[in-house]
């Protein structure tokens, strides 16, 4: 049957702007599954009305053909999926004969001109593209995880570095560790077994993986907000920040994402519990997206305010040189991170999901995977205070080793 043959080409087609899952193939698959479900529901309702003659309603794998009396014909338009068919106004006709429905005339691939893009070669090229992208972001997250864990170890091991500021940095690093881990877990659950149809997967495990991923992303942006809030508080209170603020920061960084994701999970369970919850076309996606955009917007306001306050304080003649250096050292990293993290997210948030798909994937997956490494570099490895503490402890360790060697040599000589 030509109509069924045409469906073989569909999973390799580009993204649909109307339905989008994590994997590009899922857009077309989910589109046709929805149309099929609607058609089958119509068939079930008509089957309860006996005595109908002619050709019953039929789903042919591409279109739904409503019931038709014997001897008549019906025409339907090409499926309304942009970027899949070159022609969306083409018509396909079928006749109701005494032997049932006739074959589609002309066939779908002729009337609608399927965008096969060269067939298997382009399918393989697209597969290679996603494999390459996966290798790149896997390397990025692995590098980030190694750098972040080392940075957390440095801040935790050296007692002189224990302070509220570095404690917030550790929480920020931890949110990146969770984000990288969540990406690996999500990939492992969704794409580890190629025999599983990830487009229709709807297990508790995959939903939990997606929920954990959304929590880690939201926590990441919330701790970036906390970094901005803490910097502003330091400038306002002139480095006499009360430790009582720490619990408020923890509540914002971990509590707000937990509550938000909890609301999102309950909403999806109640109103949109299909698939693996990785479709960003769902209106309930705004439960996650809105707080992220709000955090970025507030951080942008903090960015402007901190820049203004910093300019005022540096020009202040009463401010000591030491305090000026402290302000500059702390602010340069945060002021760099706030626009770096927020700009591309806001730009893409202003456009529909199907616009700039390749650029969006590149920024979110490839470049985004190295953000953790950049954070560890700015807040830890390039931090003068950290470098001085490492040098001090390294020198202390070297002196201790030299002393031990000298004592051993002395004991041997006297013996």
UniProtKB/TrEMBL annotation:
Principal location listed in the UniProt entry: membrane
Subcellular location: Cell membrane
Keyword Glycoprotein: yes
Keywords: Cell membrane, Disulfide bond, G-protein coupled receptor, Glycoprotein, Membrane, Receptor, Signal, Transducer, Transmembrane, Transmembrane helix
Transmembrane annotation, as ranges: 135-158, 170-192, 212-239, 246-266, 286-306, 327-350, 362-382
Its membrane topology: Multi-pass membrane protein
InterPro entries xref list: GPCR_2, GPCR_2-like_7TM, GPCR_2_extracell_dom_sf, GPCR_2_extracellular_dom, GPCR_2_secretin-like, GPCR_2_secretin-like_CS, GPCR_2_VIP_rcpt_1
Highest taxon listed in the record's lineage: Eukaryota
UniProt GO molecular function: G protein-coupled peptide receptor activity; growth hormone-releasing hormone receptor activity; peptide hormone binding; vasoactive intestinal polypeptide receptor activity
GO CC terms: plasma membrane
Biological-process GO terms, alphabetical: adenylate cyclase-modulating G protein-coupled receptor signaling pathway; cell surface receptor signaling pathway; positive regulation of multicellular organismal process; regulation of growth
Statement: the UniProt record of this protein carries the keyword Nucleotide-binding: no
Annotated G-protein coupled receptors family 2 profile domain residues: 38-116, 133-383
Function comment: Receptor for GRF, coupled to G proteins which activate adenylyl cyclase. Stimulates somatotroph cell growth, growth hormone gene transcription and growth hormone secretion.
Family: Belongs to the G-protein coupled receptor 2 family.
Stated name of the protein: Growth hormone-releasing hormone receptor
Organism of origin: Eulacestoma nigropectus
High-level lineage: Eukaryota, Metazoa, Chordata, Craniata, Vertebrata
